[in-house]
Write a structure and sequence with these properties.
Length: 329
């Protein structure tokens, strides 16, 4: 009997393994010249309650964490790359005035200290935790880069999404090759937590593109979802293979249970079909979050079948991320 009780407990997710962080701008009813509303990085303290971390900042667009120390996060912001230690309590800008309008950031788990960020004029790389930087997107024809992701299998392999499609490098950005989605603006990309060779990317007007060969090539999903709309985010459910969510303008939230072959709109209970971002909770199977334009962050405990408000009313959240709890020092 004790064995079966232990087995049942072992299969349940452990509460508190991850914390949800959001890049948040409070924009509803804001008037230029008025006092800046609380914006920037927020962490989810408990159901419906949020903590504003660090400084008031209306232009934060992406974040990632140090794999060796999850209490240190890196923020792609309008005024540069920011390192926020102690879960966002202490901020330091790591870049100079020569680079602005950062769009995304990714750290390489296989190369300690390696940081990549995408910005309005290319891609930059630091091998030493932000002490020095160099531009690695110079060979790309179009420089505006919205998305950057590191392949967790091997150091120096990364994918970039810009105005002309998805590009891949195997040597840390020295050489780039077009991988797919030619001619489409890429908005976000993700690597499956179940199969590292499965990648998905969302686009403006082109729908979803998928790779099954480790990001070497991407093919269109065939118009299954999002063609003619702007898709802004995509997320794999780490608790269930094949379950994926997308966020977009005019489609709201859509969920696939078969790896992207078919999709179902999951907007019942949402105030409008305009979504910025989505994220599955790795600690609670089926729990899904969605940011709805200037309404609030919404939560569903059944993969989008039913929704309720989770807080951050009046916000738009271009990106959110679950970050593992830091180990005690």
């Amino acid at each position: 009997m004790r064995f079966f009780l232990w087995l049942a407990a072992a299969t349940l997710p452990l509460a508190g393994q991850h914390t949800l962080y959001t890049c948040t701008a409070m924009t509803r009813e804001y008037v230029v010249g008025a006092k800046l509303l609380p914006s920037g990085i927020f962490s989810h303290v408990e159901t419906g309650k949020w903590k504003h971390e660090g400084y008031n900042h209306p232009f934060v667009f992406g974040l990632d964490y140090d794999p060796k120390d999850p209490s240190t996060i890196y923020i792609a912001a309008g005024n540069g790359l920011i390192r926020a230690s102690e879960h966002g309590q202490h901020w330091k800008i790591l870049t100079g005035s020569d680079v602005t309008e950062l769009r995304d950031v990714a750290l390489d788990p296989n190369a300690p200290g390696a940081i990549y960020f995408a910005h309005c004029a290319g891609i930059r790389y630091s091998p030493d935790s932000g002490a020095t930087w160099r531009e690695i997107g110079g060979s790309l024809h179009r420089k505006f880069t919205e998305a950057i992701r590191v392949d967790r299998r091997r150091a120096g392999v990364l994918l970039a999404g810009n105005e002309e499609g998805i590009f891949r490098t195997e040597d840390g950005g020295a050489h780039w090759k077009l991988a797919g989605a030619s001619g489409f603006q890429i908005m976000h990309m993700e690597q499956s937590p179940h199969d590292p060779c499965h990648w998905l990317a969302v686009t403006e007007q082109g729908g979803v593109f998928a790779s099954r060969d480790c990001g070497v090539s991407f093919e269109s999903s065939g118009g299954a979802i999002g063609v003619g709309h702007n898709l802004y985010d995509i997320a794999f459910d780490p608790s269930k293979t094949g379950r994926i969510a997308v966020a977009g303008w005019g489609i709201g939230v859509a969920v696939s249970s078969d790896g992207g072959k078919s999709w179902q709109l999951r907007n019942v209970g949402l105030p409008r079909p305009d979504a910025w971002s989505v994220a599955f909770d790795p600690d609670h199977p089926g729990r899904l979050y969605a940011s709805i334009q200037e309404e609030a962050l919404y939560i569903s405990d059944d993969a989008g079948a039913n929704w309720k408000i989770a807080g951050l009313a009046g916000s738009q959240i271009p990106r959110m991320k679950f970050i593992p709890a830091a180990k005690p020092k």
